[in-house]
Amino acid sequence: MLYQLSYTPPPSRRSGDIAAVPGRRKRRSPGRIALVERGAARQSCRMKRAAILLILPPLLGGCLARTAIDVVTLPVRAVGQGVDWATTSQDEADRNRGRELRRQEERDAKERRRAEREERRRARDDADEPR
Fold first, then answer.
1. What's the number of domains the chain is made of?
2. Are residues 70 and 92 in the same domain?
3. What are the residue ranges of helices labelled H in the chain?
4. Is residue 83 part of a domain?
5. How far apart are CA 50 and CA 79, in angstroms?
6. Assuming Cys at both sites, which of 2, 8, 104, 127 could form a disulfide with 38, CB separation 3.0 to 4.6 Å?
7. For the whole prediction, is pTM greater than 0.85?
8. Which of 47, 43, 46 is nearest to 4 (CA)?
């Protein structure tokens, strides 16, 4: 069997963990060096990977299927959206025509009010003018 040296660094200490004594220096504990059986470490890693690979597909199955459907239907949706933007439906045409008629009526009413004001002003100026 093959063995491998494994080094575990010492635990890090934050300044708030242990009260510091002024003027004294803290001693750090050394890291750990150990002989680890190389095959066992590799096997435990394989076991973890296998467990993850066995757990993920049922959890992500719907997600992967949904993604595949989205990828397949994307070109169809893009073409449909392009056609929708390029053409005008009957509802949109009716709505646009009604909007244009209302705007034209507003312009006509504004012009009519302006003409009536102008007519009243002319009639007033004619009445005020001496003959």
1. 2
2. no
3. 38-86, 90-128
4. no
5. 42
6. 2
7. no
8. 43
